[in-house]
Amino acid sequence: MAMDLQFTKGHGTGNDFVLFADPDGDIVLAPEQIALICDRHFGVGADGIIRAVRSANLPDGAAALAEDASAEWFMDYWNSDGTVSEMCGNGIRVYARFLIDQGLIDFAEGDSVAIGTRGGVRDLQRSGTGFQVDMGRWRLDGGEPLVRARELEVARPGLGINVGNPHVVVALADEEELEGIDLSVIPQLDPEPTEGVNVEFVLPHDPLVHDGVGRIRMRVHERGSGETLSCGTGAVAAALAVRYWAGKGAPNDWRVDVPGGRVGVRMFPAEDGEHVALSGPAELVYDGVLALA
Ligand SMILES: N[C@@H](CCC[C@H](N)C(=O)O)C(=O)O
């Protein structure tokens, strides 16, 4: 059906999204339309698309409402190739900014807002000029697959971590390795995860810990989007992996530098086990209208 789609372009540390409001869940985009909108030459250009829909108005939203009845809004997230993902750590902050901008939620300083995602309900708070997201519990996942990238002479062991969506984190030796990897091609994993995976390449700063804060750099190849300037869930997975490798005494506060900026990661005890929080900026850049065929 031909239609005009009102959208907003936004980003969190350079991880960019096309967002649109569809409170009643009427707008169905085909994967090819999503890929075209995200195309940087033939469309708007973005790493992903976020539809703002009331949880009550889509099947995945029922699980969110069962988990937390206050999760009125659901983040319906698609990667730039038209596949869905369970969760997006940068996207959910930009989504909160969008809901505020559209007048769809009240979000005063000190409030907490629950948002439904396919990876579970996430609680957000304002933090400085951005937001902090409680990403909930995390788990080691998928063992230690070997990761091959063309420029690495030998395959490296990765660590599988799930933070709502799946990640494999690989430690690199030096800056040359981090900068030299060509992420225009998908890193090869052995065994290959059937549902695909986001792969983070991390480099610890020297010294790793400064003033009680762990510091790492990261580049990422996102499932369904390729290399991006940042990945919030990837930063969380990377900090968790480096803390795991560093062992006893490693800090719970982390600073993660990505090509598009910096995000913060904090692990903290909660009633149901350890949670991990992500903080960072969220910017809306411009509004537009797309004529969809
Ligand atoms: N950029 C996101 C992650 C988006 C989803 C990911 N590509 C997947 O398929 O799981 C983030 O900031 O977390």
Automatic annotation (TrEMBL):
This protein's GO cellular component annotations are: cytosol
Catalysed reaction equations from the record: (2S,6S)-2,6-diaminopimelate = meso-2,6-diaminopimelate
Q: Does the keyword Cytoplasm apply?
A: yes
Q: Does the keyword Oxidoreductase apply?
A: no
This protein's pathway: Amino-acid biosynthesis; L-lysine biosynthesis via DAP pathway; DL-2,6-diaminopimelate from LL-2,6-diaminopimelate: step 1/1
* Record-marked site positions (Could be important to modulate the pK values of the two catalytic cysteine residues): 167, 222
Q: Which residues carry out catalysis?
A: 88 (proton donor), 88, 231 (proton acceptor)
Q: Name one GO biological process term.
A: lysine biosynthetic process via diaminopimelate
Transmembrane regions: none
Q: Which GO terms describe its molecular function?
A: diaminopimelate epimerase activity
The UniProt record lists the EC number as 5.1.1.7
- Alphabetized SUPFAM superfamilies for the sequence: Diaminopimelate epimerase-like
Keywords recorded for this protein, A-Z: Amino-acid biosynthesis, Cytoplasm, Isomerase, Lysine biosynthesis
**Binding sites annotated in the UniProt record for substrate:** 15, 79, 89-90, 165, 198, 222-223, 232-233
Pfam families for the chain: DAP_epimerase
Checking PROSITE patterns in the record gives: DAP_EPIMERASE
- What family classification does the UniProt entry report for this protein? Belongs to the diaminopimelate epimerase family.
Record function comment = Catalyzes the stereoinversion of LL-2,6-diaminopimelate (L,L-DAP) to meso-diaminopimelate (meso-DAP), a precursor of L-lysine and an essential component of the bacterial peptidoglycan.
What name is this protein filed under?
Diaminopimelate epimerase
State the gene name recorded for this protein.
dapF
